[in-house]
Design a protein that fits this description.
The complex is a heterodimer of chains A (about 450) and B (about 500). Chain A is mostly helical. Helices cover about 65% and strands about 5% of the residues of chain A. Chain A has helices spanning about 1-5, 20-60, 75-80, 90, 95-115, 125, 135-145, 160-165, 175, 185-195, 205-210, 225-255, 260-270, 275-290, 300-325, 325-335, 340-370, 370-375, 400-410, 415-445, and strands spanning about 65-75, 150-160, 200-205. In chain A, α5 packs across α7 and α15 (about 300-325) packs across α17 (about 340-370). The model of chain A has no long low-confidence stretch (mean pLDDT about 85). Chain B is mainly α and about 500 residues long. Chain B folds into two domains: about 5-200, no CATH class; about 255-495, MetI-like (MetI-like fold, Orthogonal Bundle), CATH 1.10.3720.10. Chain B has helices spanning about 5-40, 55-90, 95, 100-120, 125-130, 140-145, 155-195, 200-240, 245-250, 265-300, 300-315, 320-340, 350-375, 380-385, 390-420, 425-430, 445-455, 465-495, and strands at about 255, 265. Chain B has a two-stranded antiparallel ribbon with strand order 1-2. In chain B, α2 runs antiparallel to α7. Chain B is flat, with a radius of gyration of 32 Å. Classes of the chains: A mainly alpha (about 450), B mainly alpha (about 500). The interface between A and B is large, with 95 and 93 residues.
Chain lengths: ~450, ~500
């Protein structure tokens, strides 16, 4: 047999996978290219993601460090308590101007004592080394504790924003030439102060607790109000969304008859998930603020708007979790005489709880980063005071983390870009924690039936 | 803005919260009493009860709480209307007939009344004094100023009298409400206890209420949609009454003026929106599709489990972060390396900036949808193609992609609808100048940017410059909703049935 077939005059195939041909090479090259396109697309996305995170982190990490100047200060009662009786009410009459004078005098005295040359610098330039925010802080401290009058201790006060920028490399002698708030001479003085150990960069815990500050004082701006506002809103979103979302999902999955109304609800929910977020902002403005006259900028209104946006996400996740509970569980419960309601609440819901929890956390994470609708309900306003404690605090003006990012980014001083990036780092930190929690919960409780 | 919601501001924390607590306490008592009564009626033998004892408790609690809360809600809705009617009697009829003017007057009255409350609270006047104040003897404005309520103008005698009346009405209203609500709770409780017998079907009652709660929760989705449409529609109608619709929809200039006489043409905004959307789709569609192809067809399970979450990280980053990226990185980069050297202008914010960044944002959206769709194409189709000698890429291009095409088109349309509705990136990256221009390195603006612009800050809800935002909003809503419905329609209509 083998001989026969071997001896037959079989025409050699013109080409095959084994013999290389031009066409095959072309096809293989095309195959290779096609695969490369895919890899290239992924690399581009990854590269952009990396560049974005890198720029934001490199811009923002410095927001957590802040230049501070330390020098001994005597809380002279001559200036702070002109009436001389230690009466707090009398002392409130001394404005921050008085405290500023106290600070700058002590600062200049220390410069002289240490023999640090201030040649060629006017008094105003030396005073401008200190932040305009410092007197206010000092005043609050003195009024909070009048016992420190006439004592002397070393205080550490914020340096001016430009000096801080110089230590971080944002301000140079060239930019200082053109800057109204700083002169090259002040930067030289900053160098001498650093050498003398009076000026140093320390971890800036105030960035997380301070409230926002005006355009001229970027060094004092912090995220306190924004974090508190976001926390209030997330709390309210949970309180609103979880009961409503779970109830809706239970009804649609377990009880709803197949009729027109149910169809309308289903279509509605999926459409709401695709409505641009800004439309929810318009809704909030028209219904909650204009019609119901809820206070503008309040966490309550923000939470209501975010809840309406988050509900579809939570409903979709919860329905998936309920659907994943096998029918045998329901049949068993019904079989031993439980009512439909008991079956759902005693058996299905506890089994679906981990899935619901995961979906809720992910929904919250997206609500936490949402900005556009909050702009419309006035949360972009400048808020100086912390909102009060719940429940009344829910009606006080507040702002939110992502909105703070936006409002700082839209200010002209480049120092606020650093703050803005720093705020993003905080925001991303919260998001990472939430997402990781969701992943851990899913891993831990996920059940395969 | 208007006065803070008087109901919430002044009364919610104190009287209403207290009342809610009282009702809840009565309900709790109802639970305990109902349960105990059921057991005692059954002489301790719970097996003769129709329902578990707890259900009798729940029934009593619900019967106490539900009517009470219903009465409270009704009262809260009706009282302001009644009070307003009474207050109107203090003012001449002409002042009441003009609706806007009367709204302002009512606001004044509320403010003065609130100021009097604050003055009493601060101990500046006694409650009796506050009730007998007169503008002739007291400088009311200064008094209220002391109490921390600043008034724009002197208080007129009518306003002061109305404010005093208002305080009286609100106080007696609060008292009446308390009586009515507590009475409703007690009556409900008494009824529940009277029907608690072993043969009473408590569970069915309780479950009916629960079902009602579930149905109510489900209808919130519909209410939201109705709210969106109603709020935008009514304000848009208001806008079109002041500004002709044809000039809005076909106007070629957008130039709002504070003093009126604005040009509010919609076309430049639509052009900016569409231009940016097109640029973003040029970025997102190829990158997203190739990512999906690689993930679905080439990547090993191990590689897939790493790449897919990484791509999805992009989707989890808030858009304001992308906005800042556009503002401080992409915009200046494009300006310094493309726009200025090639003479396209020197604007950092541009169609290109916003389009590129939105494109990146949309990559994971397109890739995950397309990935799912390609995974749904049956393996047999690929096997058939390989059997005929096609290479992997030929199979993908000629078999998998055509089979997945309707789904992919749907995904692209959904992504386009997201790009149209995207707000933060365009607000921070596209600029604010409404222009009809072809140069992609020029700053242009979109509908969403203008909605934010016209509605942020102090707004007057009667000027067309503010109301135009609602017209833009409803247009945006219709466009995005239309795109979504169209996408779903395409997916349904052209979906290949493989089973």
């Amino acid at each position: 047999m083998t001989d026969l077939s071997a001896s037959l005059p079989v025409a050699k195939p013109k080409n095959s996978i084994l013999t290389g041909s031009d066409q095959m090479r072309r096809r293989n090259a095309a195959e290779f290219r096609f695969r490369l396109y895919g890899l290239a697309a992924i690399s581009v996305s990854m590269a952009v993601l990396a560049i974005m995170l890198w720029t934001i982190f490199s811009d923002g990490v410095s927001a957590f460090k802040q230049a501070k100047i330390s020098f001994p200060l005597t809380f002279s009662s001559e200036i702070l308590d002109p009436a001389g009786n230690g009466d707090r009410a009398e002392m409130t009459k001394v404005t921050t101007v008085g405290y500023a004078r106290l600070l700058t005098t002590a600062f200049r005295a220390e410069l002289q004592a240490r023999g640090i040359s201030t040649e060629g610098l006017s008094d105003k330039e030396i005073n401008d080394m200190l932040s305009k925010h410092a007197p206010g802080v000092l005043r609050a401290e003195v009024l909070g504790n009048t016992a420190i009058l006439d004592t002397t201790r070393t205080v550490e006060v914020l340096a001016a924003g430009r000096i801080d920028g110089y230590l971080k490399g944002r301000v140079t002698r060239e930019t200082a030439e053109r800057d109204g708030q700083v002169t090259p001479g002040m930067l030289d003085l900053a160098d001498r102060l650093t050498e003398a150990g009076m000026l140093r960069s320390a971890f800036n815990f105030d960035f997380l607790t301070n409230s926002d500050a005006s355009d001229q004082r970027p060094e004092a701006a912090g995220l306190g109000v924004a974090i508190l506002g976001s926390a209030y809103m997330m709390l309210l979103v949970v309180l609103i969304c979880v009961p409503v979302g779970v109830a809706t999902s239970i009804y649609l999955e377990e009880f709803a008859p197949k009729n027109r109304l149910t169809d309308v609800i289903e279509v509605n929910i999926s459409n709401l998930a695709a409505v641009p977020s800004i439309v929810f902002g318009i809704l909030g403005l028209a219904v909650f603020i204009n019609f119901a006259k809820f206070p503008q900028s309040s966490p309550l209104v923000g939470a209501l708007v975010l809840s309406l946006m988050t509900l579809p996400t939570i409903i979709i996740a919860t329905r998936a979790a309920i659907r994943a509970v096998p029918p045998s569980i329901r049949d068993a419960a019904l079989g031993v005489g439980a009512s439909k309601m008991q079956t759902v609440f005693h058996h299905v819901l506890p089994l679906a709880a981990p899935g619901i929890l995961t979906g809720t956390i992910l929904g919250l994470a997206s609500a936490l980063g949402e900005t556009a609708p909050l702009l419309l309900i006035g949360m972009v306003a400048y808020v100086d005071n912390y909102p009060g404690a719940p429940i009344e605090g829910f009606l006080d003006p507040a702002t939110a983390l992502p909105v703070q990012v936006y409002s700082w980014a839209s200010r002209s001083d480049p120092a606020f870009i650093e703050r803005s990036s720093g705020a993003i780092i905080v925001l991303l930190g919260f998001l990472v924690v939430m997402n990781v929690t969701a992943i851990i919960l899913r891993r831990k409780f996920e059940r395969r039936w | 803005m208007g006065p803070p919601f008087p109901l919430l501001r002044k009364q919610f924390p104190m009287t209403i919260l207290l009342l809610v607590t009282v009702v809840l306490v009565i309900a709790l008592a109802g639970f305990v009493l109902g349960r105990a009564r059921a057991i005692s009626r059954a002489s301790g033998n719970v097996r003769v009860l129709h329902s578990l004892p707890g259900y009798y408790g729940w029934h009593a609690a619900l019967m106490a709480a539900l009517p009470a809360f219903a009465v409270m809600l009704l009262w809260l809705l009706i009282q302001p209307l009644v009070v307003e009617r009474q207050i109107a009697a203090f003012f001449p009829e002409a002042a009441v007939a003009d609706e806007t003017a009367f709204t302002l007057t009512m606001a004044d009255v509320r403010r003065v009344a609130g100021g009097l409350d604050a003055a009493v609270l601060a101990g500046l006047v006694t409650a009796d004094q506050a009730a007998t104040l007169s503008v002739d003897t007291t400088d009311v404005r200064a008094l209220l100023g002391q109490a921390g309520v600043a008034l724009g103008a002197q208080v007129t005698p009518e306003t002061l009298e109305a404010a005093k009346e208002y305080r009286g009405l609100v106080a007696s209203g609060a008292f009446g409400r308390m009586i009515a609500v507590i009475a409703a709770a007690l009556v409900g409780l008494a009824y529940a206890l009277s029907v608690t017998r072993p043969d009473f079907w408590a569970r069915n009652r309780v479950e009916a209420v629960m079902l009602g709660v579930l149905v109510t929760a489900s209808s919130i989705a519909i209410l939201t949609t109705v709210g969106i449409i109603w709020s935008m529609f009514s304000e848009s109608l208001n806008f079109f009454r002041q500004y002709p619709a044809t000039e809005f929809f076909f106007g070629l200039t957008w130039n709002p003026q504070f003093r009126g006489g604005s040009d509010l043409g919609f076309i430049p905004l639509l052009w900016g929106t569409l231009y940016i959307t097109v640029v973003s789709m040029i970025v997102a569609v190829p990158l997203g599709l190739f990512t999906a192809i690689y993930l679905a067809e080439y990547a090993s399970p191990a590689a897939r489990s790493i790449i897919k979450p990484l791509i999805e990280v992009i989707a989890g980053i808030p858009t304001v972060v992308f906005g800042l990226f556009a503002l401080v990185t992409v915009g200046p980069f494009l300006r310094d390396y493309f726009a200025q050297p090639f003479g396209f202008g020197n604007s950092g914010s541009s169609v290109m900036t916003a389009g590129l960044v939105i494109g990146i944002l949309n990559i994971p959206f397109i890739s995950s949808l397309a990935d799912d769709i390609m995974n749904a194409v049956p393996q047999s189709l690929r096997d058939g193609s390989y059997g005929l000698g096609a290479t992997k890429s030929e199979t993908i291009r000629q078999v998998v992609l055509p089979a997945a095409l309707p789904g992919i088109v749907g995904a692209v349309l959904l992504a386009a609808s997201r790009a149209i509705g995207e707000t933060m990136i365009v607000t921070m990256g596209a600029g604010a100048a409404a222009k009809l221009d072809l140069n992609p390195f020029e700053a242009m603006t979109t509908m969403t940017v203008k909605i934010v612009g016209q509605l942020t800050g102090d707004t007057d809800f009667n000027s067309p410059e503010t109301l135009v935002a609602f017209a833009l909003g409803i247009t945006l809503f219709v466009i995005t909703l239309g795109l979504n419905i169209f996408a779903l329609y395409i997916v349904r209509k052209y979906r290949e049935q493989y089973e």
